[in-house]
């Protein structure tokens, strides 16, 4: 849920050899940020996003595609037989 929040002034602060920005707790919670973040440079600033895991959302996309009749895979028994299948495949 995103609600309107005024622009909040901030300053870069020294953190070791780097610099950082302290984010107010309310802003972090409103954005749904965790400990892992992604930073992206845009035309006039930096975007901070929660880091997405690889393949995040793939399962839902596959279910949705299957429900719509898209991207269905053939049954293994309908595939042309190969030497690997004759030697290695175990039919239970």
Description:
This protein has helices spanning 25-31, 58-67, 83-88; strands spanning 12-15, 18-21, 37-42, 45-50. By secondary structure, the chain is α+β, with helices and mostly antiparallel strands. The chain has a domain at 12-50: Pemi-like Protein 1, Chain: D. The strands form 2 sheets. Strands 1-2 form a two-stranded antiparallel ribbon. The longest helix has 10 residues, at 58-67. The radius of gyration is 24 Å and the shape is elongated. The model has no long low-confidence stretch (mean pLDDT 82).
In short:
The protein is of the alpha+beta class. 25% of the residues lie in helices and 22% in strands. The chain is elongated, with a radius of gyration of 24 Å.
